[in-house]
Design brief:
Its EC number is 5.6.2.2. It is found in: Cytoplasm. InterPro entries: GyrA, GyrA/parC_rep, Gyrase/topoIV_suA_C, Topo_IIA-like_dom_sf, Topo_IIA_A/C_ab, Topo_IIA_A_a_sf, Topo_IIA_dom_A, Type_II_DNA_Topoisomerases. This protein is α+β, with helices and mostly antiparallel strands. The protein folds into five domains: 173 residues, Topoisomerase II, domain 5, CATH 3.90.199.10; 79 residues, Gyrase A, domain 2, CATH 3.30.1360.40; 129 residues, Topoisomerase, domain 3; 316 residues, DNA gyrase/topoisomerase IV, subunit A, C-terminal (Neuraminidase, 6 Propeller); 44 residues. Helices cover 30% and strands 26% of the residues. It is built from 18 helices and 44 strands. Strands 14-9-8-17 form a four-stranded mixed β-sheet. The chain has a four-stranded antiparallel β-sheet with strand order 10-11-13-12, with helices on one face. Strands 21-18-19-24 form a four-stranded antiparallel β-sheet, with no helix packed on it. It is elongated and about 140 Å long. 37% of the residues are buried. About 3% of the residues have low confidence.
């Protein structure tokens, strides 16, 4: 054994590198050689080889059918080194009019059905090309494409076909490669060609421009595409999802309704669908169906679903769409191979690749025809010389010992080429007649005109484009048909903001993380010192911790104690009654364990002139441009880097008018410094120190951004004591100082819980730990100096305390419904503003909804 490897080189190979290289080779073989279509001709290798083999066998659309086994044998024997079943399956699909929008194979025999029946064995079926597949192969013999060696290097096969038809989009394609997949839906040929013609004149056309011509996918089985958003996404980005529904109509049978399915979604098995509907009806999972039967014939699909006497067709239909393949989703992935590289394309890119391929084919065809014409003209020029000197030519030929000597003498005497002299020797005596001489001269003149025309095409882009247009129009006139798949607008795609009134809401967050929104008019206004109404029903271990007043169309940014920022529209928060518990916020945003929301900030834009200021419990402050938070992921983004044991207390928006930052602590300290002392920083930064504590037990409870010193601050303690104080009374200091006293504290006041900027046009809302919400008019709260305690503004029960305060709009009017059902609006003085009949209101709302939907459709 030791001598076995003598005189042989042994190479050490890392097994990881070997496996990696081998798998990469395998994956590229699958991607390029099997699973994905080429972007130029839209065909996978197996389909291309089937058509080329049929071309080799001269099986055109006009020739006799040949056994499928003969075609499959040629394909696997010459070009496709795989199993015969895979080739036959591909050939069968190319012949199925329910699989391909424009079948490329004309099959005779049993080629399967929409019920899932398999095709007969290939020894029984016969096939030939369809007329449109001949357009895919047109000009293949004119050196229009490149060839490569077949698998055993004995023959050559085309790398791509010179198609005149945009086959990639016409018939679509599906395939799963290694690490990628393609799923391209079929389209209507007429629409595709119109889009290509538009692209020729407008090379910079966008997806929106092309959608004037291409409405969307057009499936061979028809059906209805429900909604346009997936189509737009697919054409713009190369990826999208469309819903396809069965097309139906409703008939009446006595007093009962009958649902009749006329067309099915693409790739849905009819017999399985009927079986599934019958099973659901039998198990009473779908109520109202009495019988299901298949009445389909050669004229088309007809699936009859008879309903029970009291059943409503629309309700049954909706249940069927939800529970059966009567509604399917087609995930579009416009992935194809271009220049041996797999890539996802958008609609303009695919059409431009097809156009570039057509230009290449026409240029190569023109060069081929030009060279052929020049070669023929060259021969004719020699024949003309011979005819003009026929007596001398005959004498030279008669005096020569053999053909070689004759050719040499003719070349020397008349300056002919070898080809010309050979043509003279091959010339028949019939050419010597006067008529033949005239024909030769006419042919020569035609060739000169053809050569001039072909050379002009090669020199002019416009002429090249005109030829492409003429050929596409010819294809369009021959093969175009009507669209089969309808496209309907989906109301689900209408922007919810178009249908939701923009009105103020109170958003509440409990300590245990339950959120809800309640119309602000649900809270009645009370005089200062009132007891208030319970705002939410909570468990003994829960209480309202945060609340905010915002409009339904606003965007809410949720800033958590851990420094994460989340993004949510107000109208997406479930609406509840005043006493409702709400919904767990973890169901709306992806909070992590132990993560609590500390600030809810509304905004209607993410302008770069604005910034978001973050304040931490340990006195750190940081500003970041608001534009950095305009596109938040579902799991949020890191807004600030926090020190150990530190957490976010609040966050505020700043703008160009903001001048100062004010930070308040639990033990009654406050600092005011200029906002420019904190520069804007990126998201993943720590920030700078804002305030220095005098006591180790102190911490930040609130902070605000101030526009000018003439503003007033309302400071509130946990025992309901509060006061209004001018900003200018808080001395301006440098950042990172200890500040000044904001409130004189005692056992009666408790610690400071927060502050708000005073706005007498608004009310104050205060929440207590047991869930009471109290509304107070800010005008009734007394002004006091900075170093004072203030007055009672909220009466709290024993053991209860104020946990949060916020501003809200005044409630200037009341609404009630009288005994006649009319809605009556009152102002603060009890005067009637307006009376609205319920019927009129409903009509107004209905008309407004219709108007919004129509506007959305036009958009």
């Amino acid at each position: 054994m030791e001598n076995l490897f003598e005189n042989q080189d042994i190479i050490d190979i890392n097994i990881e590198d070997s496996v990696k290289a081998s798998y990469l080779d395998y994956s590229m073989s699958v991607i390029i050689g099997r699973a994905l279509p080429d972007a130029k001709d839209g065909l996978k290798p197996v389909h291309r080889r089937i058509l080329y083999a049929m071309h080799d066998l001269n099986i055109s659309s006009k020739s006799a059918y040949k056994k499928s086994a003969r075609i499959v044998g040629d394909v696997i024997g010459k070009y496709h080194p795989h199993g015969d079943s895979s080739v036959y399956d591909a050939l069968v699909r190319m012949a199925q009019d329910f699989s391909m929008r424009a079948p490329l194979v004309d099959g005779q025999g049993n080629f399967g059905s929409i019920d899932g029946d398999n095709a007969a064995a290939m020894r029984y079926t016969e096939a030939r090309m369809t007329k449109i597949s001949e357009e895919v192969l047109r000009d293949i013999d004119k050196d229009t494409i490149n060839y490569t060696q077949n698998y055993d290097d004995t023959l050559k096969e085309p790398t791509v076909l010179p198609t005149r038809v945009p086959t990639l989009l016409l018939n679509g394609s599906e395939g799963i490669a290694v690490g990628m997949a393609t799923k391209i839906p079929p389209h209507n040929l007429n629409e595709l060609l119109n889009a290509v013609l538009h692209t020729i004149d407008n090379p910079e056309s966008t997806a929106e421009d092309l959608m004037q011509f291409i409405q969307g996918p057009d499936f061979p089985t028809g059906g209805t595409i429900f909604g346009r958003r997936g189509i737009i996404d697919a054409y713009k980005t190369g990826r999208g999802r469309v819903k396809i529904r069965a097309k139906h109509h409703i008939e009446t049978k006595g007093k009962k309704e009958v649902i009749v399915l006329d067309e099915l979604p693409y790739q849905v098995n009819k017999s399985r669908l009927i079986e599934q509907i019958a099973t659901l009806a039998k198990d009473k999972q779908i109520e109202g169906i009495s019988e299901v039967r298949d009445e389909s014939d050669r004229d088309g699909i007809r699936v009859v679903i008879e309903l029970k006497k009291d059943a409503m067709g629309e309700i049954v239909l909706n249940n069927l769409y939800k529970s059966t393949p009567m509604e399917t989703t087609f995930g579009i992935i416009l992935l194809a191979v271009h220049n041996k590289e797999p890539k996802v394309f958008n609609l303009p890119q695919i059409l431009n690749i097809f156009l570039a391929h057509r230009k290449t084919v026409i240029i190569r065809r023109t060069i081929f025809d030009l060279e052929k014409a020049k070669a023929r003209a060259h021969i004719l020029e020699g024949l003309k010389i011979a005819l003009d000197n026929i007596d001398e030519v005959v004498q030279i030929i008669r005096s020569s010992a053999n053909d070689g000597e004759a050719k040499e003498k003719l070349q020397d005497r008349f300056g002919l080429s070898t080809i010309q002299s050979q043509a003279i020797l091959d010339m028949r005596l019939g050419r010597l007649t006067g008529l033949q001489r005239d024909k030769l001269e006419a042919e020569y003149q035609e060739l000169l005109a053809l050569i001039a025309e072909l050379e002009a095409i090669l020199k002019s882009e416009d002429k090249l484009n005109e030829i492409i247009k003429e050929e596409l129009i010819e294809i369009k006139d021959k093969y175009s048909d009507e669209r089969r798949t309808e496209i309907e607008d989906s109301y689900d795609e209408i922007d919810m903001e178009d249908l939701i009134p923009n009105e103020p809401m109170v958003v509440t967050i409990t300590h245990n993380g339950y959120v809800k929104r309640v119309p602000i008019k649900s809270y009645e206004k009370q005089r200062r010192g009132g007891k208030g109404k319970v705002a939410v029903t909570t468990h003994d271990d829960d209480f309202i911790e945060k609340f905010f007043v915002s409009n339904t169309h606003d965007t809410l940014m949720f800033v958590t104690n851990m420094g994460q920022l989340y993004w949510l529209k107000v109208y997406r928060i479930p609406e509840g009654s005043r006493t409702a518990k709400g919904k767990a916020v973890v169901n709306l945003i992806n909070l992590r364990p132990d993560e609590k929301i500390m600030a809810i900030i509304p905004t209607d834009d993410f302008d770069e002139s604005k910034s978001l200021a973050f304040f931490t419990k340990n006195g750190i402050v940081k500003r970041t441009s608001l534009s950095e938070f305009s596109n938040i992921r579902s799991n949020g983004v890191r807004a600030i880097v926090l020190d150990d044991l530190d957490e976010i207390v609040t966050a505020k928006i700043t703008n160009v008018e903001s001048e100062y930052i004010m930070i308040f602590t639990s033990l009654g300290q406050c600092i005011r410094f200029e906002i420019d002392k904190t520069r804007e920083q990126g998201r993943s930064t720590r920030g700078v120190r804002g305030i220095k504590f005098k006591h180790d037990t102190d911490y930040v409870v609130d902070a605000d951004v101030i526009d000018n010193v003439e503003q007033e601050l309302l400071t509130v303690s946990e025992k309901g004591i509060g006061k209004r104080t001018l900003v200018e009374e808080y001395r301006l200091t440098n950042r990172a100082g200890s500040g000044v006293i904001s409130m004189k504290l005692s056992q009666k006041t408790g610690s400071v819980i927060g502050e708000v900027l005073v706005d007498e046009s608004m009310d104050l809302m205060a929440l207590t730990s047991i869930g009471k919400m109290i509304r107070v008019d800010m005008q009734t709260i007394r002004k006091a100096g900075r170093n004072t305690s203030g007055v009672i503004i909220v009466n709290v029960d024993k053991g209860d305390k104020v946990v949060s305060i916020a501003k809200c709009p005044k409630q200037d009017e009341e609404i009630e419904v009288d005994e006649n059902g009319n809605v009556i609006r009152y102002n603060e003085d009890g005067e009637i503003i307006e009376e609205i009949a319920v019927e009129d209101k409903s009509q107004q709302q209905s008309q407004s909804l219709k108007d919004n939907l129509e506007e959305k459709k036009e958009d």
